[in-house]
Amino acid sequence: MIKHNVNNLFEKIIQLNPFDAIVVLQYVEQKYVVQHANCKAVHLFNCSFEEGMDAGQFFHQINWSEVKQFILQNDQETKRIKIDDVEIAVVLQTMMEQGKEYTVIIMRSLLTSPIIDNQRLHIMSSAYYDELTELYNRRALNKQWTDHDNFEKTSNVALLLVDLDRFKKFNESLGKQRSDRLLFEVSERFRSLRSEYCEVFRHNGDEFVIIFHYEALEEVETLAYNILQSLQEPFIVDNQEYFVSASVGIALSTIEERDLDNLLHQADQALFYIKNNGRGHYCYYREELKHYFPNEALMEAHLHRAIELKEFMIYFQPQVNLETNKIDSFEALIRWENRKFGMVSPAQFIPIAESSGLIISIGEWVLERVCQYQKEWREYGFKPVRIAVNISPKQFKQKDFVKRISALLQQYKVEPKYLELEITESSMTNLHETTSILSRLKEIGVYVSVDDFGTGYSSLSYLKEYPIDIIKIDQSFITDIEKDRKNKAIVETIILLAQNLGLEVIAEGVEETAQEQFLRENNCQKVQGYLYNRPLPANQIVEQYFH
Prior knowledge:
Keywords: Hydrolase, Nucleotidyltransferase, Transferase
Strand order of the largest sheet: 16-17-19-20-21-22-23-24
Helix content: 25-40%
Largest sheet: 8 strands, mixed, barrel
Protein name: Bifunctional diguanylate cyclase/phosphodiesterase
GO molecular function, one term: cyclic-guanylate-specific phosphodiesterase activity
Domain GGDEF: 155-287
Distance between the termini: 89 Å
InterPro entries: Biofilm_reg_signaling, EAL_dom, EAL_sf, GGDEF_dom, Nucleotide_cyclase, Rev_trsase/Diguanyl_cyclase
Radius of gyration: 32 Å
Low-confidence stretches: 111-126
Shape: elongated
């Protein structure tokens, strides 16, 4: 057992310093003996290693008495020795294990880095080692990637970027300590994939990078499959089973064309694609994915100037009143036509706007532009219509949000009843805060609707607690309504409940006449979807609905 623990200690030291020559000494019977030496040390001193051999014999190429003097000085300053005219930096540490004292000597060639400070050479730092997962870290990835010896194994290299699906839910529900344990268990399974041709790195948070040297593409397929299969069995944390899945983006390269940053970016694009198209599988990078997922940082930079350069537009989707068969309301939807990316899907730029905080200024621009349209249409003598505007959670929780709404209505002389604010479940998590904001909005006189109703877990309580006017049934319930009995029952219940509470109901995503017929029969007030029209720019709305 003692022997096992000491060997584990040696392995730990090597993991902490994967690119250095390491020798572990013990003082036994008035002399130092070598208890452990890694391959780099054996190669450096051109000496075969036997456990317990005399240290002077092992260090035959250098002045052993000089190294022994370093040990006796018992400090942690960086020393320097020479081997065949190559200067070697030496740092020593004393460690205790099972009541025995060991001296750890770690050596690094200064041939490629003649200027190096003591702090950077301090041996017990975890510079290349991730303490949580006990895998190599990003720094180790960069270091190994520049080591040409690592690229003599095969002619092809695959970089696999592995992201744990929805791992945030474990952080939120288990807490940091237990979710860290779960992450360690996942890393243990990934560690089993390591070989002479395959290395695993913790890249960032719940992302891992696997570098694989291969001959045939089928080998990459097998590795990707094994990654996913390694997660099939449940993980046990505090006697509770948890299931984890992953998505994998794969980028391929040859030795001659290898560029780590480019491969990481390509694998990230492939990963983004697979996570938005089902998760739990793997995807190779393809050239056309450039258009699916442009550089996110570059896109954010362009978003910063989109308002200034007048790249945003408002499209409107009509909402049909099934009681009158007329259109008296629209939903305003933002569109972005960028000079570099062309027409960018909201599914791409809205998440970037939200994460960067730009969603607040963009949301304010939409609100003001809608009020401007209301004023213009009124001045042209068009019939007044209600326009719904999507409000992001961050925008909704701004301290001056209600004042801003009131000011816009006054500035453009818009009657409050012609403005509808669509909020989502994530905006309504704080009961007191949400009630206060909604009550003040109702005092102004605007309409308030809950978007994507039915997809959250607390939606029914919202109807009871909050002063809202409209619920919008999510299109996921409408899509297969004529085939799916459960969806049909859910929609029927939502409509009936809304009627009993005096709320208006709007069904989204109506594309077939059978869906419309069902909604008519169940007294749904309004519908919107491609069956009636796609979102249209303002000039087409005017031509089709106001003339």
